[in-house]
Amino acid sequence: MKRTTRRTSTLIAAAVILAAAFAPAFVRAQESAPQAAPAQPRIERGRPAELGLTPDQVKALEAFRQARVEERRAFRDQMTKLRDEMRTLRRNPQADQAKIDALIDQRAGLIASREKEAFRARAERDKIFTPEQLEKLRTLRSNRAGRGLAARARLAHGRFGRAFGPRAGLRSPAVRRALRCRQLDRWRRR
């Protein structure tokens, strides 16, 4: 019994000494944590000098972006509600076919109105920029789109490894990023 007590007290003393030795380092690390950068509009991130945006344009873009975020949230909530209703009707073998048809029509109308809003929003966004800025923005986007196509082409030829098959789970981070850029579910990211 004496031996285990001595061993326990030795371990406790060692833990206290280690905690006292490393405590100042932990405190300094907490104090010198980097501060988060203020959020910028997506269009402005990484290229403010390239587009030459004025502070008024930056504010207008941020307001535009926030309005689109709210629209997307409302659309997502409505679609979730419709999907839940469809799911419950699908499980019910005696579901009313007229109600199912009405939900499908409502869902299609919601998607159509969302696409119409997206086109109107693009036209509204383009009014914020000057013609020179719009041209710069188009060239920046075309350059970025070319890089995405090249990554997908490398993926198709197997440069990053197997994209499909039994070893598909063993992908590198680059392959996972490339697969995330696929066109299948772009409507979710608008």
Describe the structure.
This protein has 190 residues and is mainly α. It has helices at residues 2-31, 48-51, 55-91, 97-126, 131-156, 173-180. It folds into 2 domains: 39-130, Four Helix Bundle (Hemerythrin (Met), subunit A) (Up-down Bundle), CATH 1.20.120; 144-190, no CATH class. The protein has 6 helices and no strands. The longest helix is centred in the middle third of the chain and has 37 residues, at 55-91. It starts with a helix and ends in a 10-residue tail after the last helix. The model has no long low-confidence stretch (mean pLDDT 76).
Helix content: over 70%
Largest sheet: none
Structural class: mainly alpha
| Second-tier CATH architecture of the largest domain | Up-down Bundle
List keywords for this structure.
190 residues, mainly alpha, Four Helix Bundle (Hemerythrin (Met), subunit A), 2 domains
Question: What is the secondary structure topology, with strand pairs?
Answer:
Blueprint: H1 2-31, H2 48-51, H3 55-91, H4 97-126, H5 131-156, H6 173-180
In short:
This protein has helices at residues 2-31, 48-51, 55-91, 97-126, 131-156, 173-180. The chain has 190 residues and is mainly α.
